[in-house]
Write a structure and sequence with these properties.
With 353 residues, the chain is α+β, with helices and mostly antiparallel strands. 47% of the residues lie in helices and 19% in strands.
């Protein structure tokens, strides 16, 4: 359970975090009193800093130095003290203008989103291609190959094609296989693995169809747990310039690890922006880093992830707002172009045309 601070302790913690983010220098009691015109003495502030240090929200590198926020301090700041923040209207207009100028091509939009997030955050960024969530059955074909062996070709919404060999109890003619496939296509079009399972009872007495349907369920469930395949990254050099975040480069370079971080981060709540500070005991490579991640797209249909990655000392309000804003634009694109096939992204203001 997070320790609840007094109003004064929260105010002082907020000042320390904001000051350290802005200057990169440890913050002492005299600095706080002088720069922020506090109506309490340096001794009072010093005592509160000591309490915040003891509670684990601040760190003091050595006795005579000021304090810097700890991971817990950053986390408390983001969860309770940050408040609402929006990118300046003009910056929002510029970002929307860049997307409006891009071709109606998903790959170009993902590259553009990664570039915008890297520039805005001065960190690294990653955007994943949208994927069906969960996968839905579209079409199956059964092809007789040799003897009892049958090739199952399973097509999913979103374009993925899966192939699986099936060994029958006895050889069957191609006409029988095609009839079974046609029946399954009619019964299961657009269904998820769970929905297929719920409809198996409709295949009672149809041994071939039921056997194929169970294999289809296995393939769909495997596809639902697959790793993310397509990544678009930018701003890697921004991490290399920071001594404390160089280990995070490994996260961006190792596809399996990156997919694990992104999917687990957004799967905790499913919607909205998630902020992972210091790896939160799960990813050692993120010990000195913060990752701000959001899902975009249309939940239960087609979704991807986008994120910025940088040091724990970052402009949280600005970066959270940037991730949210770009995710909203990307969601509109997926909804309109991929699902409705009629893009209606709002045009830029006249001054950008």
């Amino acid at each position: 359970m997070v320790e609840q601070l007094t109003d004064r302790q929260e105010y002082i913690l907020g000042l320390v975090v904001r000051s350290y983010i802005e200057t990169g220098k440890p913050v002492g009691s005299k600095t706080l009193v002088d720069h922020f015109n506090l109506d309490v003495s340096s001794a009072t502030v010093r005592n509160e800093l000591a309490v915040l240090d003891e509670l684990g929200f601040l760190n003091q590198l050595h006795t005579s130095a000021g304090r810097v926020p700890s991971e817990s301090g950053y986390r408390y700041f983001v969860q309770r003290l940050l408040g609402e923040f929006e990118l300046p209207v003009r910056e929002q207009q510029m970002i929307r203008h860049q997307f409006h100028q891009a071709r109606l091509d998903m790959e170009q939009w993902m590259r553009l989103a990664a570039a915008i997030l890297a520039r805005t955050s001065q960190g690294a960024s990653v955007v994943t291609a949208p994927r069906p969530r969960p996968n839905r059955f579209k079409h199956v074909e059964l092809v007789s190959t040799q003897g009892r062996l049958v090739l199952m070709i399973l097509v999913l919404y979103g374009g993925d094609v899966k192939q699986q060999m099936l060994t029958l109890a006895e050889p069957l003619e191609q006409e029988r296989l095609s009839t079974a496939a046609e029946h399954l296509n009619t019964l299961f079009d657009g269904r998820t693995a769970d929905e297929l399972g719920a409809r198996l009872s409709q295949l009672d007495g149809m041994e071939l169809e039921e056997e194929v349907a169970r294999l289809m369920i296995d393939v769909l469930r495997l596809a639902d747990t697959r790793n993310i395949n397509d990544f678009y990254r930018d701003g890697l050099v921004n991490l290399l310039e920071d001594e404390g975040t160089r280990s995070a480069v490994r996260v961006l370079e190792e596809r399996t690890l990156l997919a694990d971080v992104l999917t687990q981060a957004v799967d905790r709540q499913g919607t909205g922006v998630q902020v992972i500070i210091g790896g939160e005991g799960r990813w050692e490579e993120l010990k000195d880093c913060t990752i701000i991640v959001s899902r975009y797209g249309v939940l239960e249909d087609l979704t991807g992830e986008l994120a910025v990655l940088g040091p724990t000392r970052m402009a949280y309000g600005r970066n959270i707002s940037a991730v949210r804003y770009v995710a909203d634009i990307m969601s509109s694109f997926v909804s309109d172009y991929y699902l409705d096939r009629s893009v209606r992204i709002a045009p830029p203001p006249d001054e950008y045309r």
